Amino acid sequence: MGRLFVVTLEGKIYSCKHCRTHLALCEDIVSKHFHCRHGKAYLFNKVVNVTVGEGEERMMMTGLHTVADIFCVGCGSILGWKYETAHEKSQKYKEGKSVLERPKFKKTMAAKVELGSGGRDNDDGIGDGYLYAIGVYIWL
Question: Considering the entire predicted model, what is its pTM?
């Protein structure tokens, strides 16, 4: 297996409950009125740091859909599913969107923290600019 590259998000985000890998921005929520086997679920326009499994046809509460399970790239846990195809015309808005199961993720705050003065440390230019660190805070 090669090197794992993970996208780091900033602001109000959702992250994996098990390994804290960033998954989605709060602003990408389409709906909080979805349900899964384990309770509530949210529909997102975009999710990151997931792998997509094989597509399969499933009969959902809203009709027949072609969906694929999505998994966290950090720990491999199943997070929900991605809508590949909606067979009902009224459900086409779901295509390409992903559902994350609420018990599988946490709402967190990722903040960019600036360290350093931004000035030169010496004449060779080393030390120019800022050093950035990402801090993750869990909302209770």
Answer: 0.75
